[in-house]
């Protein structure tokens, strides 16, 4: 086996200058990065893919072009614009952070990792990314793509997540003193294109001559993963109540906790031992409910959810119970419904279409 050369950060930067991705939040070569754009994209990109984020980013920027605009937006509007992107605590923190920056920092984001980390929703990674990309600070930025590149480059045998400190230490040794933001984005681009999880294109990589895993023809094995633990399942019931004028009963979830502040179809608690025989005890109104065949399934980070859906139609003059409201049917899709609630709506609508066509 040929002797490995030392990884050259400049080789990656040269590659990046030729092959950098064009992304809506990324400054063009020679342009000054917009801290608001960098912050907004980094919050959205947490645990979410670039293709999924692009339309949401563009929507937010069209609605609220400056951090002050976002700060003054009604909370409900922000949650509606975020609906479907998931991890809804990010949206609440996003709005809180915009309000703080507009009020206490006169619309200017702090330009250091330490200053950024005091803001809502900004942890170590996001602070480093904004400091490096928006302000050119020397900050080591390690996301999932960077973890993959570095773990292969140095052939780190410790499984994730225990490998994270080792990967960060290795990345810090590699990090150049200049062009820190470009280097961070270059590593991200490398991981998203050539150094992909499956079938990496090692021969075209600027680090090929220095990558231990590539030389061992074993790149796909990294980063090592600890055996997955089985995700527990919770069960529950959802109640799709429709008035004869087409309005649908909804309510807003508490501001804190899972799906906080989002609109939901009323339902039961979710638990591993949910008793389906007593599901109607949780119904939000007194009505003749029909249990739909099948179920709605959704996967959260820490558990899988199975929901049985019940539907009922009530008179047009029916009043919503305390804490709930009726939304006109043609406005329901514009509500801040998270993905699991949209699945419930679709399940109910599909059953109604099937009944009409029968």
Q: Can you characterise this structure?
A:
It contains 13 helices and seven strands. The chain has 358 residues and is of the alpha+beta class. It folds into two domains: 9-221, Endonuclease III, domain 1 (Orthogonal Bundle), CATH 1.10.340.30; 233-357, Alpha-Beta Complex (Nucleoside Triphosphate Pyrophosphohydrolase), CATH 3.90.79.10. Helix 2 crosses helix 3 (50-63), helix 2 packs antiparallel against helix 8 and helix 8 (124-135) packs across helix 11 (180-192). The radius of gyration is 24 Å and the shape is globular. The mean pLDDT is 95.
CATH class of the largest domain: Mainly Alpha
How many strands?
7
Structural class: alpha+beta
Strand and helix order: HHHHHHHHHHHHEEEEEEEH
What's the helix and strand layout?
Elements: H1 9-19, H2 35-45, H3 50-63, H4 67-71, H5 75-82, H6 89-104, H7 113-116, H8 124-135, H9 144-153, H10 164-174, H11 180-192, H12 212-215, E1 233-243, E2 248-252, E3 263-264, E4 290-291, E5 296-299, E6 304-314, E7 324-327, H13 339-357
Parallel strand pairs: 1-6
Antiparallel strand pairs: 2-3, 2-7, 4-6, 5-6
Describe what is shown at a glance.
With 358 residues, the protein is α+β, with helices and mostly antiparallel strands. It has 13 helices and 7 strands. The chain folds into 2 domains: 9-221, Hypothetical protein, domain 2 (Endonuclease III, domain 1, Orthogonal Bundle), CATH 1.10.340.30; 233-357, Nucleoside Triphosphate Pyrophosphohydrolase.
């Amino acid at each position: 086996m040929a002797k490995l050369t030392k990884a050259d950060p400049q080789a990656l930067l040269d590659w990046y200058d030729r092959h950098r991705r064009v992304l809506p939040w990324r400054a063009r070569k020679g342009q000054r990065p917009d801290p608001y754009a960098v912050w907004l994209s980094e919050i959205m990109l947490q645990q979410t893919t670039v293709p999924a984020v692009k339309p949401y980013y563009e929507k937010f920027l069209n609605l609220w072009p400056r951090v002050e605009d976002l700060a003054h937006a009604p909370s409900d509007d922000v949650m509606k614009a975020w609906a479907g992107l998931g991890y809804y605590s990010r949206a609440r923190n996003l709005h809180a952070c915009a309000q703080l920056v507009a009020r206490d920092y006169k619309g200017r984001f702090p330009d250091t990792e330490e200053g950024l980390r005091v803001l809502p929703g900004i942890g170590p990674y996001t602070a480093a990314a904004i400091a490096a990309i928006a302000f050119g600070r020397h900050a080591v930025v390690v996301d999932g793509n960077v973890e993959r590149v570095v773990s292969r480059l140095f052939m780190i045998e410790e499984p994730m997540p225990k490998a994270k400190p080792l990967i960060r230490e290795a990345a810090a040794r590699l990090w150049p003193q200049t062009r820190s933001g470009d280097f961070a984005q270059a590593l991200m681009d490398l991981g998203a294109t050539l150094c992909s999880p499956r079938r990496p294109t090692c021969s075209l990589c600027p680090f090929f001559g220095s990558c231990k895993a590539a030389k061992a023809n074993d790149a796909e094995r990294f980063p090592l993963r600890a055996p997955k633990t089985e995700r527990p399942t919770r069960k529950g019931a959802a109640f799709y109540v429709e008035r004869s004028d087409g309005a649908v009963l909804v309510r807003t979830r508490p501001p804190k906790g899972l799906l906080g502040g989002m609109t939901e179809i009323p339902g039961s608690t979710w638990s591993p031992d949910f008793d389906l025989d007593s599901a109607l005890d949780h119904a939000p109104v007194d009505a003749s409910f029909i249990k739909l065949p099948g179920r709605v399934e959704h996967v959260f980070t820490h558990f899988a959810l199975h929901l049985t859906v019940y539907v009922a139609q009530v008179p047009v003059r029916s009043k919503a119970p305390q804490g709930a409201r009726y939304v006109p049917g043609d406005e329901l899709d514009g509500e801040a419904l998270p993905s699991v609630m949209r699945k419930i709506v679709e399940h109910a609508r599909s059953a109604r279409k099937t009944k009409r066509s029968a």
